[in-house]
Amino acid sequence: MSLVASDETRFPPITRRLRLGFVGGGRGALIGQVHAMGARLSNRWQAVAGALSSDPEIALASGRDWLLERVYTDYDEMAQREAALADGIEAVVISTPNWTHKNIAEAFLKKGIDVICDKPLTTMVEDALELVRLQRDTGLIVGVTYPYTSHAMVRQARELVLAGELGRVRQIHVEYMQDWATEPDDPNFKGARWRRDPQRMGRASATNDIGTHAFHLAHFVTGLEMVECRAEFHVCGAPKAMEDTAFVQTRYEGGVPGTLWVTQAAPGNYCGLRIRVYGDKAGLEWDQEKPEFLRFNRLNQPETVFVRGHGAGMVTQAERLITLPRGHPEALSDAWANLYTEFAIAIEARRNGKSVPAGLLNYPSVADGARGVKFVDACADSHEAGSVWRDCKLVI
Amino acid sequence: MSLVASDETRFPPITRRLRLGFVGGGRGALIGQVHAMGARLSNRWQAVAGALSSDPEIALASGRDWLLERVYTDYDEMAQREAALADGIEAVVISTPNWTHKNIAEAFLKKGIDVICDKPLTTMVEDALELVRLQRDTGLIVGVTYPYTSHAMVRQARELVLAGELGRVRQIHVEYMQDWATEPDDPNFKGARWRRDPQRMGRASATNDIGTHAFHLAHFVTGLEMVECRAEFHVCGAPKAMEDTAFVQTRYEGGVPGTLWVTQAAPGNYCGLRIRVYGDKAGLEWDQEKPEFLRFNRLNQPETVFVRGHGAGMVTQAERLITLPRGHPEALSDAWANLYTEFAIAIEARRNGKSVPAGLLNYPSVADGARGVKFVDACADSHEAGSVWRDCKLVI
Amino acid sequence: MSLVASDETRFPPITRRLRLGFVGGGRGALIGQVHAMGARLSNRWQAVAGALSSDPEIALASGRDWLLERVYTDYDEMAQREAALADGIEAVVISTPNWTHKNIAEAFLKKGIDVICDKPLTTMVEDALELVRLQRDTGLIVGVTYPYTSHAMVRQARELVLAGELGRVRQIHVEYMQDWATEPDDPNFKGARWRRDPQRMGRASATNDIGTHAFHLAHFVTGLEMVECRAEFHVCGAPKAMEDTAFVQTRYEGGVPGTLWVTQAAPGNYCGLRIRVYGDKAGLEWDQEKPEFLRFNRLNQPETVFVRGHGAGMVTQAERLITLPRGHPEALSDAWANLYTEFAIAIEARRNGKSVPAGLLNYPSVADGARGVKFVDACADSHEAGSVWRDCKLVI
Amino acid sequence: MSLVASDETRFPPITRRLRLGFVGGGRGALIGQVHAMGARLSNRWQAVAGALSSDPEIALASGRDWLLERVYTDYDEMAQREAALADGIEAVVISTPNWTHKNIAEAFLKKGIDVICDKPLTTMVEDALELVRLQRDTGLIVGVTYPYTSHAMVRQARELVLAGELGRVRQIHVEYMQDWATEPDDPNFKGARWRRDPQRMGRASATNDIGTHAFHLAHFVTGLEMVECRAEFHVCGAPKAMEDTAFVQTRYEGGVPGTLWVTQAAPGNYCGLRIRVYGDKAGLEWDQEKPEFLRFNRLNQPETVFVRGHGAGMVTQAERLITLPRGHPEALSDAWANLYTEFAIAIEARRNGKSVPAGLLNYPSVADGARGVKFVDACADSHEAGSVWRDCKLVI
């Protein structure tokens, strides 16, 4: 193995906790709390303000739950007030329903506040491109929370590919399998409702919800841009207005073929996000439900399993994300913490007018978010046109 | 679990060993020896005659290796002479290159000798249909060796599906992954050469070679007929004249969607044949490299793993195939032995003019063989037409 | 399965963050940071003060690293000052070398401050008993950080046993395997040095360090007290003054036999803590490196695997600890957070003069800590006497 | 990896099938049929004669089942008649109850017939030593059927150890876990009855039945002789006259410590025979229920998994036993076939007055059988004396 940890710098030490605000995440919502957990575990943030719900009563109650100092019922008001405070928030997390991301992000960016936005970035490509332009024009940080690529072993996988350890990449397969949509939606779970409502969800449902994770993972690990896709949408679970399953054939730059398959109606699958990449020298496989292990197989050699931890073949870019020693398992909370560590470093540097060493950070950018939106749009186009090939490369 | 072993009969006891002949399988060929191994392990056959190679020298040497009583250099001569002998062979195994199966099968069937033919049955649909007709007209036994569906746990999977334990089947996924075609073919391995020669292999290579196994497995486990497919062929390994990789989208009767994916160029995969079937009540998964286990997941229940062995939820149709107790692992030799057990029972009954109890045997028939040929043909058609949907249902 | 989630209360909501102080954990120490991480992730604590090192320079630098408000260089001074402050710490975490635990705990308890102490509680049985008495006399909370029993699936395992799902427990096996002591100690790793120094470590090394975890896990899951043990100590890694490996035969109340085996010199093992419990109706197995899964096997039934998450057979006592949905893996950080959640609830209730519902909390008590010390002592006695049986039941 | 397949010779080709006789194995017995299966699959034997039961009626019926040419009801008569025939048997398989092995083996050896004997070789050490002497005096072949060490991956494990890939061996752990004795014995299963009868089984039950397998596996893989053991016997399943569980502490030559643990009362375990060996450079693990894989871990390196098949790091001594390519799983039938292949080669060479190249064969010898008997005896002695250390080294 020619890969050795290089001398590249570690993350800078923690000197203070940045002030963080939240839009979305009130009682009954899961994902906002997961963001907060990642921020907390990273130890680089303190949650101080929030507009956790558009329902004022829930917003207030949730603000108390979160021990926030300042609670808002309206994100616009929050953006204005926080921007005006000397010790206002230094970044905002947006974890509201998808179709509201764009306006909220815009409101904060226009006030000079860095944005951490849940995926998908927006429901429409044009909105995503506007955010890309706004980010470029303002120079602010806009991060998108695809947390899975912040696992140390995914970073390890990426470096193996980029270092040529697989040879030339020849095929790429990703899948994300769940089972909760097998049954009719729980009427008490608001998220399930809007996820199947074309008015709000946009042109696709499962493809948006979990397909974007699979799409980003494939792009991140291989460094290759997906250029074309061909999708079939299906309803394999309880009857519903939008797809819960999508089979996508994919083509990456250089003509590399692949598949991307998502379903929310496969009993016995919870968050079965898996990637398999095969080159002409070796292959690799990773499964998010067993995130500590990376299977790596050189052709005609015994199998190799990398296990997260210092040493034992880990590369610098992965080592940097390690908190606990090998065998003390890390998991999803830790991946979110890694993500929030990178956001903090980027945002603190920007605020201090400092630059970050090239290659130090690898959080998903606004462009990565826009790529996902374009992918979903191309899948929907393809499906509606009878599953023909559609261009899905984002042109910024 | 409502499934319990029923009172159905066990296999009849062994009373004598049937005489078996072989065409193909000479020195340098693997699969003929695997057939012989299965026949031997079943204890219901004795190998007595063979035309193991078209090269007379190899035929004779191989015949000695196999300790055969009668060695031929020509299958036609073998068919005639054996048919004329009082103690001639009672069945012939055909494990020659694919494009020769049809003529050889015909030669033996016309002499009244039952046929056990390797897959794919033929390289052309019309040839397959002729064999189907010839079988029907003669009433002889024609079995096709898809061995994987003779694993006890595949029988268990099938019965779970047929008994409705998964609810209505909603999606079907099969894959077969190998890695030997990543590199240029070994010039000493004859099989690799003809597998990539369109003149001999027919319209597809990997799809023929391993796709037919995946196709049969999906059909066998679910009991559903595939009606349409849409294929993309790729070369992902060393350059070659025919595909080593195929991504196929599939549709089964009743509109059930699925995927079928095969590759011979995925480093670190050996014989990665896997099936995943999801219904509206439960799902199941089976992997031929770990054939003793069947993962079965009811929605919102703890996971269930069936382990091969008497009792513990095994159904009659699977129990019948069990030789060794739970924990004494069986594997591929045992699956081949099961197949040869069923062939022997069918052929002995036919020769004795007896009937076999309904449901006792489940070996792949000539129609199953022809279905596979039709599937390959439809994939090739689809690919050549730009990966459009093609009808792949066999009409006999 | 007769086990269903009962109506027992959930954990009370968070209303404020308790103020936490730390003794130990300065630069170069790992475990103090893991405590801090668990406290942070639980969201029920804020770290405000610390005496992180006995070296004043390190203490100050480490205090800055941790963003503490008040930094001390002496734990005694810290105890006095914090006790005197209106907003002084509400609990102290002790993560110093083992032989210092007792005096530090005493100093804080005498000032009325609740204590969270790393394992082993002390190095001598008499010291442990003094702390037990001091806790009883003061009525303060003393928790001991055996984090593994705060995994949801370990709670699930315990409830299965206590509910009689395994029948009568007949044998109990625990092991904890690591590999870092295979090689000579890293001279830069202070912890390795004192771990092999009988003057400081007490009468055993690996048995103290990881044996206590295995001991507690067995006790916790089965609810049975270990009454006798017989130990053999070995050095299987690089030469050293104390054992890195111990094979212990064990006997629990009711005459239940078992084994307990620990080593720090088994290459390829990182934190291989595993428990296997067998009753006359069923058995279970859990592995801390794959903490999300609990294998449960009823005799003559298919295998069952419980997967952490709401529903699907999880009992209330395990459900209560769940943060993320099934398939979003939790791991060691989450177990520590669970532990710190329980400490916070216990301490806040005590400070408020409230009682906690019976069965709500299950953190390791000072008596659990003392049991571990007694076990180590009995093992050392046994080994020194030629591996004879020794009583290891704690009499308080 | 410095290990490469050497130029050592392959097994000689098959030129004829040796004639094999059986004592034991009649209707209702399992193990005789497993022997026959291995012999058949090896293709180097034909079963021609047998005294399958001491009950004449069963002997005759079983002989018909087995399609034998010559059926006896008395082993003595069989030995005499077969020895007198020009085409009499060339070896006899003994798979009768343990306490009868010695007299039967003697009867055949005295007639000049090579012996293949099931384990344990005898129930008393003195009997075993007599067979050792008789073998030495006659120069005949006496093999003992410990089949697990005939798995290719166990041979691979052994060669890794012998080649020094693990460094100096520092600890050795074996276990064999089953669950069938959890419940009262099935009154229809004769084998269960005599297995718990001290008059017939000898001084130990589970230790004899499965402990000998674990003992031989440890010896085979490490090449080290066990010199001392200390055993505790338990009944952990249904009440019975002899132990169903034994915990043994072990010491090998050079002072290498270890554990050996067997139970037949651990629900959810079928044939859980596992070995773990740790040296000062690396460790290895193998599990007979997943016999195709060998986990090998160098200290501070990524994990390595060897998968059975040609190439990919397999050594000559393991390669030689490979029938099917990687990914076409072999299992227990194949291990038995390997054993019968080696017996055939040894016996044919002896009969032809030829020698076998050194290192070509590795079947368990009569001395290996005697070692197992001595081990069981030492365990029983140890247990009865209060679990003190007992010498268990065989002195021939």
TrEMBL record, chains A, B, C, D:
Regions that span the bilayer: none
Every GFO/IDH/MocA-like oxidoreductase domain range: 154-284
Residue runs in coiled coils: none
Source taxon at top rank: Bacteria
Pfam families, alphabetized: GFO_IDH_MocA (PF01408), GFO_IDH_MocA_C3 (PF22725)
Alphabetical list of InterPro entries matching this protein: Gfo/Idh/MocA-like_OxRdtase_N, Gfo/Idh/MocA_oxidoreduct, GFO_IDH_MocA-like_dom, NAD(P)-bd_dom_sf
Domain Gfo/Idh/MocA-like oxidoreductase N-terminal: 19-146
Protein name listed in UniProt: Gfo/Idh/MocA family oxidoreductase
